[in-house]
Amino acid sequence: MPGHGPRDEIEARERAAFQLSLRQRGIRDNNVLRALETVPRTLFVSDGLEEHAYADRALPIACGQTISQPFIVAYMTQLLELDNTHKVLEIGTGSGYQTAVLARIAKRVYTIDRFRTLIGAAELRFNALRLANITSMPGDGSLGWPAQAPFERIIVTAAADQVPKLLIEQLAPDGIMIIPIGAQGGEQKLVRIEKSAKGKITEKPLIAVRFVPLIAGRAISL
Ligand code: SAH
Q1: Do 152 and 86 touch, CB atoms closer than 8 A?
Q2: How close is the Cα of 68 to the center of ligand 1, in Å?
Q3: Looking at ligand 1, which residue's alpha carbon is closest to its atom 13?
Q4: Per-residue pLDDT reduced to its tens digit, 163-207
Q5: Long-range contacts of 194-198 (CB under 8 A, 24+ apart)
Q6: Is residue 215 situated within a structural domain?
Q7: pTM of the complete model beyond 0.85
Q8: Is 68 a catalytic residue?
Q9: Neighbours of 43 (CB within 10 A)
Q10: CATH number of the domain bearing residue 167
């Protein structure tokens, strides 16, 4: 369907260059490339920032939070080795952009954010994109989502001091979790955690990253 608004024009112009840069930077998983191609990032950035939607940087969203840099979204999604049989838990819904990318590949996505406002805004976007395989709720993601566990994949998009124990418990055998670990403003590393079929945990630190902090506690009505 041809678009007419400013968002559509920006989309068309920026999308091809964006795909090329992802390939050049090592994103090879076709599911990931296709998902990023079909989720319009302009829909997830704040009004007035549409022209920066495809710049490779994090951008501010409501509640003092950020939408992650697009390369990091692609990189983390690729590390999850996702397919359409997976049930995924995401902690840190934010704008919902990473959620939408996951939902294009996985069977079902459960996502949690501590800000009710962000959950409400993200749900409107999921509906607009007709993404029917996402369930979201406001809450403390460091507790996971026990009623829906176990999850074949878990992705955390806020930085924790250490890996939340409850998330490890809710990871299925043969599961993969991707989480940034480290202090706010200090050194943070993306860590890939794998649980073997027998439940053995291995952790592998990867690239340096910069995320807002994972903050425990009740959901905030903001
Ligand atoms: N993936 C998001 C990035 C969001 S930034 C995007 O692409 O837009 C990280 C998010 O984690 C913020 O929205 C913040 O509110 C949320 N967060 C921080 N601590 C949390 C917690 N304990 N439980 C759930 N969400 C949390």
Answers
A1: yes
A2: 10
A3: 94
A4: 999 999 999 999 999 999 998 778 899 999 999 999 999 999 999
A5: 195/168, 195/171, 197/173, 198/173
A6: no
A7: yes
A8: yes
A9: 18
A10: 3.40.50.150
| Residues in the ligand 1 pocket, defined by CB under 6 Å | 65-68, 91-92, 94-95, 97-98, 112-115, 118, 140-142, 157-158, 212, 214-216
pLDDT for 145 equals 98
Structure tokens at 71: 């390369």
Mean pLDDT, rounded, for 17-26: 91
Ligand 1 mean position, distance from CA 52 (Å): 21
Is 46's pLDDT higher than 50?
yes
Instruction: Classify residue 214: in a domain, yes or no.
Output: no
Q: Domain for residue 220, yes or no?
A: no
Q: Taking the mean position of all CA atoms in its chain, how far away is CA 23? A: 19
Output the pLDDT for position 6: 67
pLDDT band at 76 (very low <50, low <70, confident <90, very high): very high
How many CB atoms sit inside 10 A of residue 8's CB?
14
The answer as to whether 14 is a domain residue is yes
Nearest partner of 133 among 81, 82, 177, judged by Cα: 82
